[in-house]
Design goal:
The complex is a heterodimer of chains A (132) and B (66).
Chain A: H1 3-27, H2 30-49, H3 58-89, H4 98-128
Chain B: E1 4-6, H1 8-15, H2 19-26, H3 30-37, H4 45-55, H5 59-62, E2 63-65
Antiparallel strand pairs in B: 1-2
Helix pairs in contact in B: 2-3
Classes of the chains: A mainly alpha (132), B mainly alpha (66).
């Protein structure tokens, strides 16, 4: 499959997903939404497998890495600050969901930091090790 | 700031190739070839070798560090 054909098929899949999910939301049908996402993911995987053109190369990976670093450096501090603000604004836990939301945000921030640290440690060991 | 220039555009024109054809030969996207030709992206050593092998020239004949 050529790149042009791939772009067209990708558009069709996204269109199908958008339509089905909007219908599922309006009908309040979670099963329909989940199955649409599943079908979309599988068909995208199958289509990508049949594309002969190069879709991801070193420049794309380079850009993705830089973008991921920027996203991480913005997301984690924002989540951490928000979680503190929410938790301290609702210390008495009086009938509001803010404290719970703060706890969830702090866990998400910690989860992000943990994944980053594990990945960083793994790659440092992989590339920085003096073992041959 | 140190920079790397290249003459890929000239070499490609000499061979009468399109950016797409060169991209296919060295297994990258056309956008990467465009960025390299415009000196906006410095290729990895592996890609630089692939390009130099394709044009049958030494790396320093294609890429210039200054």
């Amino acid at each position: 499959m050529s790149y042009k054909k791939f772009k067209f098929v990708r558009f069709l899949i996204v269109f199908f997903l958008a339509m089905t999910i909007s219908i599922a939301v309006s009908m309040e049908n979670v099963l329909l939404a989940v199955s649409a996402i599943g079908i979309g993911m599988i068909s995208m995987f199958l289509v990508k497998k049949n594309v002969k053109a190069v879709l991801v190369d070193e420049m794309v990976k380079n850009i993705a890495g830089k973008s991921a670093l920027i996203a991480y450096s913005i997301t984690v501090p924002v989540l951490a600050v928000l979680s503190l603000v929410f938790m301290f604004s609702d210390l008495s836990h009086q009938g509001s969901y803010l404290y719970g939301l703060g706890v969830i945000f702090s866990y998400i921030a910690l989860f992000n930091m943990a994944i980053y640290s594990i990945a960083y440690y793994y790659y440092r060991k992989k590339y920085g090790s003096d073992k041959e | 700031m140190a920079q790397i220039k290249n003459n890929i555009k000239v070499l490609r024109a000499e061979k009468g190739m399109t950016q797409e054809e060169l991209a296919d030969k060295v297994n990258v996207t056309r956008q990467t070839i465009i960025a390299i030709e415009k000196n906006k992206y410095i290729p990895s050593l592996e890609l630089a070798y692939k390009i130099s092998l394709f044009f049958n020239k030494k790396i320093e004949e294609i890429f210039e560090y200054f």
